[in-house]
Amino acid sequence: MNPFNINEKGHLTIDGVDTTYLAKKYGTPLFVYDVNAIRNNARAFVNTFKELGVKAQVAYASKAFSSIAMLQVAKQENLSLDVVSQGELYTALQADFPVDKIHLHGNNKSYDELEMAVKNNVGCIVVDNFFEIELLSEILEQNQTSMDVLIRVTPGIEAHTHDYILTGNEDSKFGFDLSNGQAEKAFLLLNQQKNIHVKGLHCHIGSQIFETEGFVMATKRLFETISKWKQEHHYSPTVLNLGGGFGIRYTEEDDPLPLSGYVEALVAEIQQQVDQLGMDMPEIWIEPGRSIVGNTGITLYTIGSKKEIPGVRKYISVDGGMTDNIRPALYQAKYDAIIANKAGQPVAENVSVAGKCCESGDMLIWDLELPTVNHGDLLAMFSTGAYGYSMSSHYNRFPKAAVVFVENGKDKLVIKREAYQEVARYDLSYE
User: Fold this and answer.
1) pLDDT of the residue at 41
2) Which residue, of 238, 270, 291, is where some domain finishes?
3) CA–CA separation, 81 and 90 (whole Å)
4) Local confidence band at 161 (pLDDT 50, 70, 90 cut-offs)
5) What is the predicted pLDDT for the residue at 1?
6) pLDDT digits (tens, 9 = 90+) for 336-385
7) Sign of torsion over alpha carbons 174, 178, 180, 182
8) For the chain, is the Cβ count within 10 Å smaller at the N or the C terminus?
9) 111-119 and 86-94 helices cross at what angle (nearest 10)?
10) 3-state helix, strand, coil in the chain (%, to 5)
11) Are 279 and 228 in contact (CB under 8 A)?
C-alpha cells in the first residue's frame, strides 16, 4: 500500500500523518520515513526466500541510511547487516545488533577496523585485497581467534547504470578479478591461513538495476570459477553473496521489478548451476540497501525565493540542497516532488528547484510541474530515503537535517537537527 496520500485539507500525508504538521513540529529540511514501508520491503526479500525454501541472509546495506533507530528496525525484521567502516560498525553495536549477523566490507580496511571487527567477533569479513589478507591474518594470530570470510570478486559484468556506481566490472577498485587469476591466488592464500575459513564468494555488479540479466550473467561467471575450484581443489562454497543494486522508482521514467522478482531469478539460476555440478545449494546472501529504504523516505523543504528569467526558466529555491541530497549534483540523479500543502491542486507552472548552497550545480530538480508556488509552501521530494542523510555534509556550514520515523499514524524523532554550535563544536581558536 502506498504510504503517501492526500487528506481532506489537500495536504500530503505519510502513513496518515500530515506532512505540514511534521514540518511545523520539527522544522525543515526534514527527512521523514514510513517504517511500515521499510518493513514491507524487507519482508518482500525475506519471505520470498522462505517461500522458495532456500536458506538465505538478507543483509541491509547500512551505507544507504544508518542510524541506531534504522538498525533497530532492521534487527526487528531479522535482517543481517552490511557495514563498511568503524563508524557503521559502532552504530550497529550501539543498536545492539547481533554481531554474528554483521558482515564487514571495504576496499581499504584499516588495521583498527579489522581489529574492531575481530574483537567484536562479527559474523563475516568480505576480503577485498591481498594486503588485507596479511593484516587480517596478523590480527587473528594476535587475538588467538578465527574468522569466516568471503572473497569479493569482480566478475566483469557491467550493469546498466551510471559509471560512477559500477563496481563489478574488471576495472574496479573493489575485489579480486576473476579473469586474471587474482581470485584463485587469493583463495589459495586464504586457505593456507589456519585462522581463516573461506565460506564462499561475493560480488556486486552495480546499483539501481532494473533487470535480472546482469545478476544471472554474474552468477554464471561465479559458477565457472566454482566448478574449477571444485574440480581442482575439492572446494564447494557454503555461501554465495550476489550483493545488491536492486532498482527503485524515482520518477515515471523508472520501471523497477517487484523485489521478489530479483530473488526468484537469482535462486532459479543458482539452483540450475548447483544441479549441474552435483553440489549442495549454498546459503544465498544479498545486500539490499536502497531497495529497502529508498522509496520509504521523503524530504520536506520550505520554499523561499523565486526567480523568473523570461523565456528561459523559473527557479524556486528551498532551504536545503546538495548538503542533504548530493545525488543530483554527483550523479545527475532525477527526482519527483509535489507541493505538500497543495497536493490536491492542479498544475499551474513549470519550475526548477534550486538548493541554497553557493554552487551553481546545486539543483535538486529541473523542469517540475507544480501548482502555483508561493513563498512558505512546503515541497515534498520523494524517494530520498537512501543516500540523502548518509551523504549529507556541512558545506556552507549548514547543520544536518533532522530525521523522523512515522509508523501507524505516530511520529518519532530519531535523529535530532544539528544546532549551529554543533557545526563548530570541534573548531579551536587560533588567538
Assistant:
1) 98
2) 291
3) 12
4) low
5) 39
6) 999 999 998 999 999 999 999 999 999 999 999 999 999 999 999 999 99
7) positive
8) C
9) 20
10) 35, 25, 40
11) no
Taking the C-alpha atoms of residue 288 and residue 293, their distance in angstroms, rounded to an integer, is 9
Provide the residue type at 293 as one letter: V
Q: Do 224 and 239 lie in a common domain?
A: yes
- Would you say residue 366 lies in a domain? yes
Q: Is 125 helix (H, G, I), strand (E, B) or coil?
A: strand
Strand partners, 328: none
State phi, psi for 402 to the nearest 5 degrees. Answer: -85, 160
Instruction: State the catalytic residues.
Output: 358
Task: Identify which of 320, 328, 316 has the alpha carbon closest to the alpha carbon of residue 300.
Answer: 320
What's the distance, Cα to Cα, between the start and end of the chain in Å? 59
Q: Give the CA radius of gyration of the chain.
A: 23
The range of the structural domain enclosing residue 74 comes to 36-291
pLDDT of amino acid 171: 73
CATH of the domain at 419: 2.40.37.10
CA distance 392 to 13: 25
For residues 301-328, average pLDDT: 97
Considering the chain, what is the average pLDDT of its residues?
A: 95
